[in-house]
Amino acid sequence: MTGGKGGGRKSKEARRAELGAAVHRALLTRGLEGLRLRDIADEAGVTPAAVLYYGDLDALVYEAYQHGIERYSEERERAAEQFTDARDQLRACIDIGPAAGPDDALTRLLFEYWPRCLRDPKAAALDSALTERQIAVYYGILVLGQNQGHFRLADPPRLLAANFVAMEDGYQMEILAGRRSRAEVVTALRSLARAVTGSDLG
């Protein structure tokens, strides 16, 4: 976290971004419950006192989770926005969601933090925001597909959107545990899509 262009110092934003990456790496190595300030400092190549300049351990972890949520959500939203046909949007939305495998860093980060939601209202609110954002994407696609005449929805779109997210979340744990492949999960989600929309995504 030292140095910079032309021998000058890096901006505070650049140093914070580097620290955020260090928090992410430390979380994946140590796990949330075993994480120490020293672990983050070692990953960042600085002293624990230097890390504290940016916040205490809980604040740094919360920020890392917040950034992870933003990245995960934006990737899904961009994938769907490439298309105008709701069938293509739903296919893209399903395809991008499941983890690549047990070592998928972003998905692991999100699930490392989840147990804290059971005890910490602030963490629970952040997790709810992630869930609602994913539901909103599915909901918009399902309504669009209905309006375009492609989908014959078996139930209200909000309920179906929540079901997609819940099913995906459950399968994420299977992928991270190495019990199911990404391809199997995509197939399962497309099966759900076919059942609730009447449209075969291929």
Please supply descriptive tags for the structure shown above:
Arc Repressor Mutant, subunit A, Tetracycline Repressor, domain 2, 2 domains, mainly alpha, disordered N terminus, 202 residues, 0% strand
Give an account of the 3D structure.
This protein is mainly α. The protein folds into two domains: 1-55, Arc Repressor Mutant, subunit A; 57-197, Tetracycline Repressor, domain 2. Helix content is 69%, strand content 0%. It contains nine helices and no strands. It has helices at residues 12-30, 37-44, 48-52, 57-81, 86-96, 105-113, 121-147, 157-176, 182-197. Helix 7 (121-147) packs across helix 8 (157-176). The longest helix has 27 residues, at 121-147. It is elongated. The model is unreliable at 2-8 (pLDDT under 50).
CATH topology of the largest domain: Tetracycline Repressor, domain 2
Structural class: mainly alpha
The average pLDDT value, as a whole number, equals 89
Return the CATH architecture of the largest domain.
Orthogonal Bundle
What is the tally of beta strands?
0
Q: How many distinct domains? A: 2
What count of helical segments does DSSP give? 9
- Global Rg: 20 Å
Q: N- to C-terminal separation?
A: 47 Å
* Uncertain regions spanning at least 5 consecutive residues: 2-8
Strand and helix map with partners:
Elements: H1 12-30, H2 37-44, H3 48-52, H4 57-81, H5 86-96, H6 105-113, H7 121-147, H8 157-176, H9 182-197
Helix pairs in contact: 1-2, 1-4, 4-5, 4-6, 4-7, 5-7, 5-9, 7-8, 8-9
